[in-house]
Amino acid sequence: QPTGENERLEGRRGHVDYGLPPLEHELNSSAQLQGVPAFVWEIPQLLIIGVMKAGTSALYYALCEHPRINCVAYVKEPFYLSSAEVAAQAREYHGLVQQERRRLFHLRYVQTVFNLTALSAGQVTLEASTTYLHSAAALTLITSRLMNADRIRMLVVLREPLSRALSHYNHEKRHGKQKATFGDAIAPELAILKSCHQQDTWLAQQNRLDEARPYEALYDCVQAESERYRLAKRRALPGYLFKSLYLWHLRPWLAAVPDRLHFVLHEHFRRDPITELAQLQRNIGLEEFDYESVREEITHEFQEGSRYNRFSGPMIHELALLFRAHNDLLELAIGMPLPWNEALERGHFVIPIE
Ligand SMILES: Nc1ncnc2c1ncn2[C@@H]1O[C@H](COP(=O)(O)OS(=O)(=O)O)[C@@H](OP(=O)(O)O)[C@H]1O
Asked: What is the pLDDT of residue 280?
């Protein structure tokens, strides 16, 4: 029998019985919603939704140092809300009224992803999954299935797109998923990007990239060509370049939850995490915490830094041209100056040592 809510909250540091239905039970009955403590409907308050290789681990663990933030997810990246299986399950709670379905979905998410026995009272609970930004399912589930959909703050870490692509490539190479050189690995994506640019006659005629319209066409074309590639080669493109076209992935989020997205630039965060975190906590309305006291913990390097060589040459120039215009549009869309094009112009690039 669940105890009173206050008692449950008091004892959170220990092993507490929250009276939640066990996970193995089919979530198909409103009876299972009885006695669920109110705080469960407020989890999570904070989500890091992307992007992969932009320093999301560093940000996640730095935020975990904040005394008001709970990092009780079983893993840093649970990927729960971007799972196709979960999205399919969410459509399958039969015989329940909509509000009950929503509560059951929320409850199952919370129970699967977070260790509730490690929660402390009055905290902000954080989850981070870099797949969410790229996932239509995640956006739908967050906005229509979580009970606190209107209050969740979402953090997006962005990084100069080519450096992100390099880091992504390096990551896959380290994990044995990629054997080709960087140049060969990005070649199919670069070819698609170039051909889509050329196909866009409006773009070619106007010779301008500063309006949203040609980008709609570019993204549609890239999507169609990627699908063609996938069917022909029976494998998807890795997305080293495509995942760096941030605006493409961000657009549905900017349309659906514009006021709840908060951006962190990798370059700023890496250079001065304390100032960035202070700014971020103000933006998301978190109580002031002096990160100086945990400087050592938050300046910790999270992975062996990738080994890079300086790089220049025609390919980088092509890439720089393609990304420069995208960066300008992104800057407009999120209303935040981005320091990346200067680096692109200087050809200030490095590639992994093969
Ligand atoms: N303290 C700190 N601040 C900012 N960035 C840092 C920090 N520590 C590591 N890194 C670099 O972040 C890159 C990994 O990013 P992610 O943690 O987002 O990777 S992942 O998507 O979770 O795999 C990865 O970049 P590359 O080294 O270029 O591959 C890490 O080196």
From this structure: 97
Closest residue by CA, ligand 1 atom 27: 305
Backbone angles phi, psi at 345, to 5 degrees: -65, -35
ipTM for this prediction: 0.99
Instruction: Indicate the top mutation candidate among 133, 163, 167 to test ligand 1's pocket, ranked by most ligand atoms within 8 A of CB.
Output: 167
Report the separation in Å between the CA atom of 299 and the middle of ligand 1, taken as the mean of its atom positions. Answer: 12
What is the average pLDDT across 221-241?
95
What H or E segment, with its residue span, contains residue 318? helix 314-334
The answer to whether the beta carbons of residues 299 and 274 sit under 8 Å apart is: no
User: Distance between CA 85 and CA 271 in Å, rounded?
Assistant: 39
Q: How confident is the model at residue 23 (pLDDT cuts 50, 70, 90)?
A: very low
List, in order of start, the domains of the chain with CATH numbers. 5-159+250-298 (3.40.50.300), 162-247+306-352 (no CATH)
Strand partners, 350: 310
Nearest atom within ligand 1 for CA of residue 298: 1
Give ligand 1 pocket residues (Cβ under 6 A). 52-58, 130, 167, 170-171, 266, 269-270, 301-303, 305-306
What is the residue-wise DSSP string for 124-189?
EEEEE-TTGGG-HHHHHHHHHHSTTTTT-EEEEEE--HHHHHHHHHHHHHHTTS--S-HHHHHHHH
Mean pLDDT of all residues in the chain? 82
Range with the poorest average pLDDT among 139-153, 180-194, 255-269, 281-295: 180-194
pLDDT band at 248 (very low <50, low <70, confident <90, very high): very high
- Mutate-to-test residue for ligand 1 from 291, 297, 302, 306, highest number of ligand atoms within 8 A of CB: 302
pTM higher than 0.90: no
Do the beta carbons of residue 86 and residue 110 sit within 8 Å? no
Answer for the pair 152, 146: CB distance below 8 angstroms, yes or no: yes
